Amino acid sequence: MDDQDTTVYTVDLNTVFADLDDKVAYTGYEEVPNYDGATIMVVDHNGNGMEDIVFIVDQGTKYGEDSTYFYVAGATFWNC
Lesser CB count within 10 Å: N end or C end of the chain? Predict the structure, then answer.
């Protein structure tokens, strides 16, 4: 686990975001709120460079629930 990871992950309107703290799932980047300091795990099940599932393991600070983009600042990433 490297909390200095600057890897860019690609998501789309079919990516599922599972917030494990709030026990809620969002489909597509337009639906998910923003998180600051979150710990996430990403799954590219199809191997096409597009993340299929993003698990938000520790949400940190959640804000902008009415935003139309997904952004994680200061995150800890686990690539599955």
Answer: N
Q: How many residues does the chain have?
A: 80
- Left if phi > 0, otherwise alpha if psi is -120 to 50, otherwise beta: which for 59? alpha
Q: Tokens 């698990």 identify what position?
A: 55
Identify residue 12 by its one-letter amino acid code.
D
pTM above 0.90, yes or no: no
Per-residue pLDDT of the chain (80 residues; tens, 9 = 90+): 455 567 788 999 999 999 998 899 999 988 888 888 888 899 998 889 899 999 998 877 887 665 545 556 665 655 55
The percent of the chain in helix, strand and coil, each rounded to the nearest 5, is 0, 40, 60
74, 39 Cβ separation under 8 angstroms: no
How far is the C-alpha of 30 from the C-alpha of 3, rounded, in Å? 25
